[in-house]
Amino acid sequence: MRKSSLRRACTALVAVTSLALAATACGGTTKKDVSKENASAASDAKANPNAELKKGLTVGFLPKQVNNPYFTSADKGGEKALTELGSKYKEVGPSSATDTAGQVSYVNTLTQQQVDAMAVSAQDPGALCTALKQAMKNDIKVVTYDSDTKPDCRNAFVSQASAEDLGRTEVQLLAEQIGYKGEIAILSAAQTATNQNTWIDFMKDELKDPKYKDVKLVKVAYGDDDAQKSFQQTQGLLQEYPNLKGIISPTTVGIKAAAQYLSGSKYKGKVKLTGLGTPNDMRKYVKNGTVEAFELWDPAKLGELAARTAVALSSGQITGKEGETFKAGDMGEYTIGKDGVISLGKPTVFDKKNIDQFNF
Ligand code: RAM
């Protein structure tokens, strides 16, 4: 039997008692000590690239936020892949992108329900660690997608694109639009979001290049992936910095709300806006001249790759170690990189020339 009664006792313990205590109490009962790995939490088991893909698995998706259209598309991609593979999909998650405690309890619920794997977009890099490690100790494979936790708290991270490329290209897009001169601001998601914070670090680094000597980043504001808060934060940025020339919003919720504000204001077309958005959200603002260009990857493909990675891990084809390869159906072959990171590919830049070719 794959799951022992001890495992049940431990997961129940996690659900009813303090996480730290439960983790300690259950620490001696594990089949493997996943926390010892220093790169990703790749298991000591050897990968068997020829292992058959298991069917009948249950994979739980836990996005940052369930009512965010970006995650609706991503998770639908996961569901489609799992159905094709003969496995079961389920989704749980908080409705706010700043409900870290909620995410922790959803991890514990999935553990208690004894899913085979979970795909998690982490609201915070560290907060989920104890719960995720507990899941892995119970033989549940943990894949992060979209927003990572720490490498030793999951088996693999399915990344949307190179974080460095995303950060640098957003600065390049905006700088071109403002003629390499003037004050700019960033409108981000939650202050703890691993993905946005990584991209922002690369944006700041890009801005160190002498070609941006006349571009000044005046503020990073946080809209928490909440439409209303993001709208108000945009308004606040323009009140505080009346000379603002441009905004980068590396979140689909933020860029849409900022575009909505700008498009109804005297700043339309004057204050430039770029970042990460979906073509369906942004089409109208590209057509009405509020936004010139922005970028994103296909969220459904990200969800599909997360699902296929989860199944490959559960089937023993991969363990999460650097250099392992697996075939992700029609998406082709992927190789696991440093720290257990699997990269989806290059993002697409959307503008008025190509936006009508996309429907997500
Ligand atoms: C929002 C979320 C998500 C991010 C996208 C770009 O939907 O913050 O994590 O990847 O924007």
TrEMBL record:
UniProt GO MF annotations: carbohydrate binding
Broad class of where this protein is predominantly found: other
Gene3D superfamilies membership: 3.40.50.2300
Localization in the cell: Cell envelope
Cellular component GO terms, alphabetical: outer membrane-bounded periplasmic space
Periplasmic binding protein domain: residues covered: 59-317
The keyword Signal belongs to this UniProt entry's keyword annotation: yes
Signal peptide limits: 1-22
Keywords: Signal
BP-aspect Gene Ontology terms: rhamnose transmembrane transport
Pfam family, one: Peripla_BP_4
CDD domains named in the record: PBP1_ABC_rhamnose
Identification of the protein by name: Rhamnose ABC transporter substrate-binding protein
Protein species of origin: Streptomyces spongiae
